[in-house]
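Practice problem: predict the structure.
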Amino acid sequence: MAADDKNIKDIRMNFPAPRPVFIARRRTLLAATLGAGLLASGCASMRPPGSVTPVSPFDLQRYQGLWYELARLDHGFERGMTDVTAEYTPQADGSVKVVNRGFSVPRGQWQRAVGKALFTGKPDTASLKVSFFGPFYGGYHVAALDPDYRWALVLGPDTQYCWILAREPKLPPQTLQSIVAKAGELGVDTSALIWVSHDRHQEARSQEAL
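Answer:
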């Protein structure tokens, strides 16, 4: 990240959480800023959408590491965010540490959220539940994945939550078109996708190369 840790503040972003958390989170500045995707029940929030079959076989060791968010559907918890990344690190207890970072244009600063992911079933199936709010989890389902783990199409508990992730800030246009087409087949309103700028990351790379 091209940011000093002193300028990073914890936030809640990227992953949906069950509806019972909503009132409590609105009482805090962080939750009021970002909120989270909400569902009728915690159980339902961890299931993949009916149109989605999570990727299997799935290799967490290959999936771990840094991913760039290339596109997403609009939600309050990421509104105004650019240069968004997600980093996944397997833990000894079988969980996955999740660190989401991004630049808040309205606030003019880098922000960060740290959470935990757990597999909902066997670890060779890419269906997980993610929490940034203690015991409250939301679904995270890899619906499509590049054979070389260069990109991933991720859906939440329903098709209102969709992210396109990649190992680099950009993908070839034909590859992106293929991913978007797949998302559309799964019921995602692809016309509503927001394409995420990574200009700050690109600038940082250019400066490092000097």
